[in-house]
Specification:
Elements (H helix, E strand, L loop, with lengths): L7 H20 L5 H17 L10 H19 L9 H31 L3 H8 L7 H9 L3 H25 L4
Helix pairs in contact: 1-2, 1-3, 1-4, 2-3, 3-4, 4-7, 5-7
Length: about 180
């Protein structure tokens, strides 16, 4: 590991760089975006707790994908009664296919997202990453600022929408490879 004691800001920055890849990877295995959100949330907590086990920054993406795959399988096992949940063998197949097919596009999207994130005010960047910090952090933030969690989530959604628009606009202007 290059950083002997990675801190929360280091984790946030690396996670933000790879978040779109993680979400796309999780979505390739899960039936809904709500499921993706749930898996990404639990996987990010595991990544933070086990951050000392990975070589930063290069090993973070593949390592994170392994954690997401296990969390997706765990999610599917708990939701097994739902007819819209995939078999674990199918999840492995989908994960392998997704790894092979979209990696170059995701790298481009990550670079664009990183650029868009750099243009967002520091306070907004910290807020949009807050749900991934640790369990209960957003509640603490709401109490500190005298706002409700719901109002913070609404602001996060607005920031994410702006980031998404920025990414889409930049990707539309990039030459086809």
């Amino acid at each position: 590991m290059t950083d002997p004691e990675p801190n929360q800001d280091t984790f946030d920055a690396i996670f933000a760089t790879h978040e779109s890849a993680f979400r796309a990877y999780a979505r390739s295995m899960l039936p809904t975006w709500d499921a993706v959100d749930e898996v990404i949330q639990s996987a990010s907590l595991i990544m933070w707790r086990k951050l000392d086990q990975v070589d930063l920054p290069d090993g973070f993406l593949p390592w994170g994908k392994v954690i997401i795959r296990f969390e997706a399988k765990k999610y599917c096992r708990t939701k097994a009664r739902d007819a819209h949940v995939f078999d674990p063998d199918l999840l492995d197949l989908l994960a392998r296919h997704q790894d092979e097919s979209v990696e170059p596009d995701l790298q481009q999207e990550q670079a664009v997202l990183e650029e868009c994130l750099s243009r967002v005010a520091d306070s907004q960047r910290k807020l949009v990453l807050a749900p991934y910090r640790r369990h209960g952090y957003l509640t603490e933030l709401a109490e500190k600022t005298g706002r409700t969690r719901n109002s913070l989530y609404k602001q996060i959604r607005r920031i994410r929408a702006k980031l998404e628009q920025c990414v889409q606009e930049k990707l539309n202007f990039l030459p086809e490879s």
